Structure formats: C-alpha cells, structure tokens
TrEMBL record:
Swiss-Prot/TrEMBL keywords: Cell projection, Cytoplasm, Cytoskeleton
Name of the protein this chain belongs to: Cilia- and flagella-associated protein 91
Alphabetical list of Pfam families matching this protein: CFAP91 (PF14738)
Family the entry assigns: Belongs to the CFAP91 family.
Length: 261
C-alpha cells in the first residue's frame, strides 16, 4: 500500500539483459552453446552475420558427423582428404570476409576523400572568388582614374583651344555676370578664393536683438497696442435671452437668412 520513488530514472539504472547460469550435462552438447560468445551489444540482438555464422556452425557439425572414425586405418586417407578440403573452404571463406572488410574500408576511404575534395574545392572557389572581386575592384579604380585624367586633359585642351594664338583677352564683365557659372558667381578655390572663410561677416548683428539693453529699449519704443491687446467679444447675431440661450425661432431665422444670402 506504500509507493516509493527512487532518485534515478529506470533508463539511467538499466543494465544489460540478464543471462542466467546454466549447467551442461556430460552426455549432451546443446546447440545453443555456440552463441555463448555473443553478448548484448556484441552480436546480440542477432543480425544477418550472426545467422550466417550459426548456419556455418550447423553445416560444420553435420560435416563432422560424416567423417570416418579414427579407429579405421583404411579410412585415414579419406578423412585427411576431407579435412584438407574443409580447411581450403574455410580459408576461401576467410579470404572472402577479408575482401569484404577491405571493400568496406575502401568505401569509407572513398567517402572521406570525396568529402575532403569537396571541402578543398569549396575553399578554392572562395579563394578564386575573393581574388576575382579584388581584381574587379582594381579594374574599377583604374578605369575611374583614367576617366578622371581624361576629363582633366579635355578641360586643358578646351582651355588651350580658346586662346590658340596666345593673345591676351580682356575680361568681359557683361559676359561674366550673364553666365551664372562664371568666377563672379562661383569662384574656384584653386585660384585663391575660399568662400567658407570669414563666414561670420554674413551673420546679422543687431544691437536691439543681441543685448538685453537693446531689447528693453526696443520694447519701450513699441506702442501699447502691441504689448497690451484688447479684444472685444463679438455680439451675437441672433436674439438671446437673459441667460444667453438662443431661441429656436431666432436660430431658424438666422439659418433662413444664411440660405437666402
């Protein structure tokens, strides 16, 4: 009637399947003893390889039953020949097992080599992609520099073409003021003009706005109508009662007058 709860789960305390003790009679050799070398996790539960081993053990026991007895001297040569044939079969079977293991190892090695080649190809592709990107950036920078030099040389050629004979030309003030891209409106820094210098001279400096005394003087000069505003309440267009309520008749008259207007 009392239930208990352990500190561990059943799965954590689970052991290998129980194998009971057994006693073998001297007159019998059970076939089940051929599986005594198999344990849980090493052959158990039985698979295809274990079933083939059991079948080979049964075939070997059947073959041992067909061997001639040792007390018959005339059958010794036959017994030796049968044993040699069986030994050759066992060696051939072992060679097949070794070949199977070698094939499995070869497949695993092929998979590992294939995986390594894929990783190496991926790294090579990334490296080539990075080199291609760098090469493209270098080409773009070079093209940009060539275009800049080309524009510079074209401007120089245009400037030389304007004064082919090398004559000194007077300044045309009307043309300078008519062209908004001339030096009059947009002077260049390279000819010695810096438009950002002395920018504070364009700021508005007013005595009445920057000083407290100026503000007081400005406020005193203003008329009273500016500082002291008087607002008169508008008179209602409709007749109201003493309490300020507009009658319905007056409201209707106002609406009719608005519609008529």
């Amino acid at each position: 009637t009392v239930g208990t709860q352990t500190d561990y789960r059943d799965g954590e305390a689970q052991t290998d399947p129980y194998s009971p003790e057994y006693v073998v009679l001297s007159t019998s050799i059970p076939e089940l003893l051929t599986l005594a070398t198999l344990t849980w996790g090493r052959g158990l539960p039985a698979g295809l390889a274990e079933v083939e081993m059991i079948e080979r053990a049964r075939a070997k026991r059947a073959w041992e039953a067909t061997l001639p007895p040792l007390d018959n001297a005339s059958q010794i040569a036959k017994r030796r020949k049968m044993m040699d044939d069986m030994e050759k079969k066992e060696w051939a079977f072992r060679e097949q097992e070794i070949e199977k293991l070698q094939e499995l190892r070869l497949e695993v090695l092929k998979k590992l080599l294939r995986r390594r080649n894929e990783k190496q190809n991926e790294l090579d592709f990334k490296r080539l992609d990075a080199q291609w990107q760098n090469h493209q950036k270098a080409i773009e920078e070079k093209v940009k520099k060539l275009r800049h030099n080309c524009a510079l040389m074209v401007r120089k050629l245009i400037a030389k073409r304007k004064n082919v004979g090398g004559k000194l030309a007077r300044r045309d003030i009307i043309e300078d003021y008519a062209d908004f891209a001339s030096q009059t409106y947009a002077p260049l820094t390279r000819i010695g003009y810096f438009p950002d210098n002395h920018a504070e001279r364009y700021a508005v400096k007013n005595y009445y706005l920057n000083t407290f005394a100026g503000l007081c003087q400005l406020e005193a000069s203003l008329p009273d109508s500016v500082t002291q505003v008087q607002i008169q309440a508008p008179k209602p267009k409709c007749s109201t009662t003493k309490t300020g309520f507009i009658k319905r008749s007056a409201r209707l008259e106002a609406e009719l007058a608005q519609v008529h207007q």
